[in-house]
Amino acid sequence: MELQPPTLELAELAELPTAAAAPADCTGTCNTCPAVGSCPDRVVCKCLRVTEEVVITAITSLGLRTVKEVRTVTEAGTGCNCCHRELRAYLAVYSSSSSPNMCSAK
Length: 106
Known about the structure:
By secondary structure, the protein is mostly helical. It has a domain at 28-94: Arc Repressor Mutant, subunit A (Orthogonal Bundle), CATH 1.10.10. The chain contains four helices and two strands. The protein has a two-stranded antiparallel sheet. A hairpin with a 4-residue loop joins strand 1 and strand 2. Helix 2 (52-62) crosses helix 4. The longest helix is centred in the middle third of the chain and has 11 residues, at 52-62. It is globular. The two termini are 23 Å apart. Residues 3-27 and 98-106 have low confidence and may be disordered.
């Protein structure tokens, strides 16, 4: 049996913050940015120092849809795994699809 990654429920998706303009002096170290995608210099994965900009760019340019794919491409989330919830939030906002395409061809 293959384990499936947890998915965000519809109610959880509604609670995700939306992107907002970052302060002009944002350095990514203050941790006061209000939303996912609002501060490109914010460190998402503290273990490997992977920034929000790297995560968002990988998701949008490569069409990543799972935390496993984000881990493979950016290495974010391969240390202590504490950032997995945040990575799922980035995927929910920036991924073109949060679930793989299903083929019903016989």
